[in-house]
Amino acid sequence: MSYEYRLVFADELSAERVIDKVKSDASHVGSRGKFIYLKEPSVESEATYDVRMVKEDGNSIWLEVGFRSPGLYHLLKGAIADTPCACLDDGDPDDEVPLYEAFRLKQDPS
Fold first, then answer.
1. Does the global pTM surpass 0.90?
2. What CATH number does the domain containing 52 carry?
């Protein structure tokens, strides 16, 4: 079972910068078209990837999280940095959640 979130940025350039930063990390295990695959460094699972990101046209990124991923949370949080970003559960504009919840964390580990 996976969970889906839509990350919405103020502009397209901000979303592209986040994608570029994530793709330059060792957790990036591959890309295919608009799909970016990431592997959680602290978990030894047999899954090919633990998080999948999809860059949409425009200012948003879809995030599919398979299970608890603290290392990938820190990676994405660092890539987003101070860039304004809304994390929407299932893409619902009325259901904004903190980014750490998307990675199945109960509280912000920072």
1. yes
2. 3.30.70
